[in-house]
Design a protein that fits this description.
mainly alpha
Length: 121
């Protein structure tokens, strides 16, 4: 399996989720005024990021002010792992079989001994 592709998909997924969370819940977001009155999307993102928030609370030791750096790092790890799963499933869906060297089995040349008899003539 091309692990580079899986890592790229996982990183892109995690960065997109971080950006989406900032757009929905960030105070400096251009959509902040809109989401003050339409709270369904920010609340959904907060529920999805509950474990990273709890991790931030555990790191800071203050339940009223979680550690921002720890929360963002834990959120990135959470969404990176989900993105890695998506990347593996996408790579397998594209028909590439797992290999340690990153070369798909389908891309290897056919050796004459492996070719059918009709193709040898």
């Amino acid at each position: 399996m091309p692990w580079r592709r899986v890592a790229l998909i996982a990183t892109a997924f995690a960065l997109c989720m971080q950006l989406a969370f900032w757009l929905a819940a960030g105070e400096a977001s251009p959509f902040y005024e809109y989401f003050l009155w339409h709270t369904a999307v920010p609340n959904a993102f907060r529920e999805l990021n509950l474990l990273p928030t709890l991790f931030g609370v555990a790191v800071s030791g203050n339940m009223h002010q979680p550690s921002l750096a720890a929360g963002v790092a834990a959120s990135f790890v959470q969404w990176f792992s989900v993105g890695a799963l998506v990347g593996v499933l996408t790579t397998l869906r594209l028909g590439q079989t797992p290999r340690s060297d990153g070369v798909p089995v389908d891309a290897q040349p056919v050796v004459a001994a492996d070719a059918p008899k009709a193709a040898r003539r």
